[in-house]
Write a structure and sequence with these properties.
Elements: E1 2-8, E2 13-20, E3 23-27, H1 33-43, E4 46-51, H2 57-60, H3 63-70, E5 74-77, H4 81-85, H5 87-90, E6 106-108, E7 113-116, E8 119-125, E9 134-138, E10 143-147, E11 150-151, E12 154-155, H6 165-176, E13 184-187, E14 193-194, H7 195-201
Parallel strand pairs: 3-4, 4-5, 5-6, 10-13
Antiparallel strand pairs: 1-2, 2-3, 7-8, 8-9, 9-10, 11-12, 13-14
Helix pairs in contact: 1-3
């Protein structure tokens, strides 16, 4: 497993290329579809699917271009469909850019396990940043793609439509912090971290009733 982090767009979003030999997964794609295609060609890997942690504009900007060019299926959480499809919710209509509407081909339920590019991946429903946010847990590799739910020494905003501070705290503490401590976390913004580190230092504990 090799994880390539591309920091893209106006708010420095981490877009991930998760490589398993000749196949790859594309996760949370801000912009620059052509650049991401070229990067995969350089890596000599073929994308097989797009995975989205949530529907905010800075995580979906390149999805339609990549989906059309490479004929890739798009995966997202089952409660995130309206964010993906409605520019007023996903924020693209307010950012001085072309409004974006994305259709997911597969809507995942909490705990659902999918097998893509040779990986077994568990979808973990983690509402709070948005109502339908999900994280992707690669159990065999001890890797979590956390989107904008959990950051290094921080956590996602809850002041957007569908956000809930209580739900976010519950998601992090009761669904993510139960993962093995050595699990490496790749967030939607900023540096990677581990579950062990965040259990010790993350301020989210102050927001759980």
């Amino acid at each position: 497993m090799k994880i390539i982090t591309e920091v893209l767009g106006m708010v420095s979003t981490n877009s991930y290329i998760v490589v398993n030999g000749g196949e790859a997964l594309l996760i949370d794609l801000e912009e620059s579809a052509d650049y991401l295609i070229e990067k995969c060609e350089e890596l000599q890997t073929k994308p097989t699917a797009i995975l989205l942690t949530h529907g905010h504009f800075d995580h979906i900007g390149a999805v339609n271009g990549l989906k059309e060019a490479l004929k890739l299926p798009v995966y997202a959480g089952k409660d995130e469909e309206y964010f993906l499809t409605d520019p007023a919710y996903n924020g693209s209509a307010k950012m001085g850019r072309t409004p974006v509407s994305v259709t997911a081909d597969v809507l995942l339920k909490d705990g659902e396990i999918i097998e893509l590019a040779g990986f077994k991946i568990k979808a973990i429903s983690t509402p709070g940043h948005t109502a339908g946010s999900i994280c992707y847990y690669f159990e065999d590799e001890n890797i979590l793609i956390s989107g904008d739910v959990l950051f290094a020494d921080s956590f996602g905003r809850t002041d957007f439509p569908g956000g809930s501070q209580k739900d976010l705290a519950d998601s992090i503490i009761n669904k993510l912090f139960i993962l093995p401590p050595e699990t490496k976390v790749y967030p939607g913004h900023g540096p990677s971290t581990t579950i062990e580190r965040e259990k010790k230092s993350n301020p989210i504990y102050h927001y759980l009733d």
